[in-house]
Amino acid sequence: MSKTVLVVDDSPSVRQVVSMVLKASGHKVTEAGNGIEGLEKLQGNKFNLIVCDVNMPEMDGLTFVEHARQLESCKFTPILMLTTETKDEMRERAKAMGVRAWLVKPFQPQVLLSAIAKLA
């Protein structure tokens, strides 16, 4: 089933790879280069899922999640963090904020698709 996914990552190459994997599986993808752009994309749009990096300039992923959860349209939107971050305390903080999944880069496309199928 096709999902509408927001991909928030400061790396153009990561956004491109994630988008290609998702589009090849029939999903619709919108991209943002940091948390501020991500919040702008959320305005007036409804997404089935958000895939977000943690470490980004302008606004990091956890700050983005904090702001996104304040929006009525995103209170219950599943969020998957796709990051190089491996610290347990960071994962626990994200989980407490409502992040539903955590994948570490580099990722296998099938693992990403499997996680998305379970979340959205």
Automatic annotation (TrEMBL):
Coiled coil: none annotated. The keyword Phosphoprotein applies. Keywords: Phosphoprotein. Residues 4-120 form the Response regulatory domain. InterPro entries: Bact_response_regulator, CheY-like_superfamily, Sig_transdc_resp-reg_receiver. The modification 4-aspartylphosphate is found at residue 53. Pfam families: Response_reg. It comes from the Bacteria. PROSITE patterns: RESPONSE_REGULATORY. This is Response regulator. It comes from Vibrio porteresiae DSM 19223.
